[in-house]
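ARCHIVE CARD
Drawer: 12
Card no.: 0347
Subject: one protein chain, sequence and derived structure
Cross-reference: see card 0346
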Amino acid sequence: MFRIACTLTSSNEIMLDYTAVPSQSTPVNLTNHTYFNLSGSGTVLNHELKLDCSSFLETDVSLCPTGKILNVTENSVYDFTSGKTLGKNIGDTMGGYDTPYIIDGYDGTLRRCAVLSDSLSGRRINVFTTLPAVQVYTGNFLEGVTGKNGRTYKKYEGVCLETEGFPDAPNHKNFPDCIYSPERVYHEKTVYQFLF
């Protein structure tokens, strides 16, 4: 059994409440792939992102985790701990960010993991989750994708902040356990708080 409850609050929050009760032991790692563009058009490269994450998962050329947990080096390509625009170092990546970050102080309680803001529009999103990781994806493969009302999207015109368990966890003993069962129910929450 799987259920997701989506709630829009009077405080401009979208609350996602995930529940899964497997009939037998199985891996479960649910997320949400919503694209955000706080300016409403153009790329998101001028959006500023701050992550409450001082480490991330190394990935191979197929974007699959290798099992290594890397510390963020200050002012490096992958450092968003103090906040910076998505475009600042994107040219030093392999075509954009598609990176799983580990949330500092994870303990299973609802905590902030990211702040995305756009100085031109004044819009901001605070992201909270009970999950241990957040995947930052900068729309690297959007080129030519058709969306709402037939609009064609281009590369970097949206960013995803995908709260999740560690990707590929069943294949890495050092990753948090993602096996759930009738005795171990999956229940997680993510909140996107919009500020104008």
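Annotation on reverse: DSSP finds no helices and 16 strands in the chain. The chain has a mean pLDDT of 96.
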